[in-house]
Amino acid sequence: MTNHWVDIKNTDLVLIMGGNAAEAHPCGFKWVTEAKAHRKARLIVVDPRFTRSAAMSDFYAPIRAGSDIAFLGGVINYLLGHDRIHHEYVKHYTDFSFLVKDEFAFANGLFTGYDAEKRKYDKSSWGYQIGDDGYVRVDPTLQNPRCVYQLMKAHYSRYTPEMVATICGTPKEAFLKVCAAIADTAAPDKTMTIMYALGWTQHSVGSQMIRTGAMVQLLLGNIGVAGGGMNALRGHSNIQGLTDLGLLSNLMPGYLTLPNDAEQDYAAYVGKRTLKPLRPGQLSYWQNYPRFHVSLMKAWFGDAVTADNNWGYDWLPKLDKGYDLMQMFEDMGQGKVNGYVCQGFNPLGSAPCKVKVSNSLSKLKFMVVIDPLVTETSEFWQNHGEYNDVDPAKIQTEVFRLPSTCFAEENGSLINSGRWLQWHWKAAEPPAETLSDQEIMAGIFLRVRALYQKEGGAFPDPILNVAWKYKIPSFPSPEELAREFSGKALKDVTDPKDPGRVLVKAGEQLSGFADLRDDGSTSCGCWLFAGSWSEKGNLMARRDNADPYGVGQTLNWAYAWPANRRILYNRASCDPSGKPYDPTRAIVAWDAAAGKWGGADVPDFKIDSAPQDGMNPFIMNPEGVARFFAVDAMAEGPFPEHYEPFETPLAVNPLSPKNPEVRSNPAARVFKDIWPTLGKPDAFPYVCTTYRLTEHFHFWTQHVRLDAILQPEQFVEIGEELAKEKGIKAGDHVRVKSSHGFIVAVAVVTKRLKALTIDGRKTHTVGVPIHWGFMGLTRNGYIANTLTPYVADANSQTPEFKAFLVNLEKV
Amino acid sequence: MQVTRRQFFRICAAGVGSSSLAALGFAPGEALAEVRAFKLARTTETRNTCPYCSVGCGLLMYSLGDNAKNTRGKIIHVEGDPDHPVNRGTLCPKGAGLLDFVNSPHRLQYPQYRAPGSKEWTRISWDDAFSRIARLMKDDRDKHFIAKNDKGETVNRWLSTGFLAASASSNETGYLTYKVVRSMGILGFDNQARV
């Protein structure tokens, strides 16, 4: 979330799209009802189903699963066509006036530079015109046909209300009603919040769906303001934290990135990431990259890394490509992977195409499962009848199942969607022989290290040199680890403006990332969390819920990254002169007398940079402004374009009907063997989508008796019209079949799912809740991902769970 | 007004107004039989955070035992934390059932091992589990570690073993996990955010 849960109360309009907060995030959704009750805010829900959120809405518009870019592109077209945008905001705080290279173009559904064989773009034309002064050329009049505004206007002119109706199935009147309500928030004193979740991420164009939503918000000036923002409702309690900490194939903590093979030289690696300003007077905060990186390496390796060995640069593994989950299961299926550890992760349930995952796991030599509960993954080798029909004798994988503590049995911090690091305390001992995750990781690591000390082996250097100065080496305590990622001074840290002044003494905890240095004098395991445990103590454990300004910013409750800031980009809530656009919802303002920014929130800005200095609010971008034109950051193009799901009921992409290459995302990675497995509409005529229920959490609460009682048995949702066509009554058992497998479940016949007219044809949607498996206290069920295709988003490699094709029959 | 304890309760139960008797100073005589005390009065209250979705609702967990070294706490009640700015004491149907998660009969109890081709689990000690896992990992790493690529560039990666990290483990666990996984050179590393 750019904003946070309580801040939703400050909004005028809530758009829930690609999520169902009333069902999946009920206690956060409360702030929507708060805004409705006390601010007269309205709620609009756009979803394939009439969800529980829709039931609370002022207006609901149906949409076909997977067509959200077409819808939002249509909104952009409406806003630009009717000139319903926040003019001052877009002119000063976005790239509207930036000039794009003349070579850049878009035709037939493709941007310039496409290589069909590699399914990749040469992105050299996706850039700005750079002037002789080294800065991006701009046209403040916005008349130049190469400025971002003009290019964007032309791009989205194709997204007419008629085209939206064709692709999305949303009736034109409903679509226009949504547009009009959204457009009202272009007024400087009105705002909208967008709440989305996996309904936007789990698509082959998921990243671009989210980007399109963000573009709508930027046009309206709704980013950086109280009650506004792009609010990702994360699915798990610490998925935000684990992402911030970089537990992903290509990342390091704090969104630093691992080097690739070609980056053999440390200076070049770090130089490329030390982004210099692209416009005069801009902060470009990533200029501090070397401070973040060196401090991280000092936290990991301590005294063993110095300037002389490039801070251990060669100890970092280098990437020749991404090794995300789907790449790993692909490699595993080809016998290239021998060992796999699943820590609190149940891939047999959570990964796409269960049969492929199961076959891949069967090729492992060994698997380690670390979990508080019995997971399906831990028993992938066991025959569980129709739900997991395998022959154990043929599976030669050695499996270890290690019991770990749950939340109630440990101290530590979790990060919620609002980026709050909240500390929690142990309330009880774990069952029987259960150990904490820290003890388990230490148990494995210390033994591996002992073997390397004794026997030597392949490149032991990083293993032998990991800093492990924990008081009890076999149990690094949560408190020690939290202090380590927050950071400390290894030598006295002095003020660069006054070298005689010591800011932090050697050995003390740092107060924030401004204290970080690139000379090895500071250690910090995650720059983004710097200051969360300062000399003032554990700020994540704070419990003062005072809200002195009355706008819901409880700055002394827990700790928010970065720098305890609650609303990101909050400088953009003020006009260029530093005055809040809406004084009734002010969060920061320029205080000329004090010569600094201040207010209800921690300013997301250089605190003493006066408005007349011309620094812009988006300080993490080298441009200083927000981007409509993504330059080269996205795989499939600088402007989001609608592409069909890989399993689509349509023969062509209605936006580019003559180019079969662009029916689905042309830049998405598709493994060779997967193409023939993709379902076609002749055999699988119905759109299918998966989702959660409020009574269950993924594949955990099937083990929780109360939840198992509330929702004991697997079901699927079918619209009344489709049920009638198929002769299915509520309560009948039905077989839902995709190109990848089938499930059998009870049919719930509902008014919530209605047929839509897509490209002139009636199209039904089938809904599949995900919560059952073969290990629960619930009745055994089929894993929902038996049905899903093995394709993913081109940027994030997140699987396309939300739009695929199925057929249906009564059993 | 002389009443026995039992009569006192009978009077109190008779009507709304009678509860004011106690307020006026009419207390019953010596208790002969104790009513059951409010269950949570003798428990230890601990602040925690709901482990399910990302709203991050504050929890109050009540456990028997006073956290002394020689006692073993047992959680008997979980409810929303009324001080928490987001949930203000509320919980959803999942959060309200957390006690059954902590005490689920499907919690793992001890390390287990499944041999190649076997149909069953056997118990194994932690020491044996760690030693065997470490041996398997080291052997695989030593055999398949890639120090240089075809072009002779230093790459120092280990691709034949992968690691999937959690979605609900703490930052502290995540940070330590990262340190261990990357120092070994593993690239096949993801967390639940990927899916």
How would you sum up the major sheet of chain A?
Answer: 6 strands, mixed, barrel
Shape of chain B: elongated
Number of helices of chain A: 21
Q: List how many beta strands of chain B DSSP finds.
A: 9
Strand order of the largest sheet of chain B: 1-2-3
Q: Level of helix content of chain B?
A: 25-40%
Radius of gyration from the alpha-carbon trace of chain A, in angstroms:
27 Å
Rg calc of chain B: 28 Å
Architecture blueprint of SSEs:
The complex is a heterodimer of chains A (811) and B (195).
Chain A lengths: L12 E5 L3 H4 L1 H14 L2 E6 L4 H4 L3 E4 L5 H14 L5 H7 L12 E2 L2 E2 L2 E2 L4 E2 L26 H9 L4 H8 L3 H12 L8 E5 L1 H4 L4 H14 L10 E3 L6 H6 L6 E2 L3 E2 L8 H8 L15 H13 L23 H9 L5 E5 L3 H4 L3 H8 L4 E6 L26 E6 L8 E4 L4 E5 L12 H19 L5 H5 L12 H9 L1 E2 L3 E3 L2 E7 L17 E2 L9 E2 L2 E2 L20 E2 L28 E3 L4 E3 L87 E6 L13 H6 L4 E5 H7 L6 E6 L2 E10 L5 E3 L2 E3 L1 E5 L34 E7 L1
Parallel strand pairs in A: 1-2, 1-8, 2-3, 8-9, 12-13, 13-14, 26-32, 27-29
Antiparallel strand pairs in A: 4-5, 6-7, 10-11, 15-16, 16-23, 17-20, 18-19, 21-22, 24-25, 26-33, 27-32, 28-29, 28-33, 30-31
Helix pairs in contact in A: 4-7, 4-8, 4-10, 14-16
Chain B lengths: L4 H10 L5 H4 L20 E6 L8 E7 L9 E7 L17 H5 L9 E3 L7 E2 L2 H19 L1 E3 L5 E4 L3 E4 L6 H13 L5 E2 L5
Parallel strand pairs in B: 8-9
Antiparallel strand pairs in B: 1-2, 2-3, 4-5, 6-7
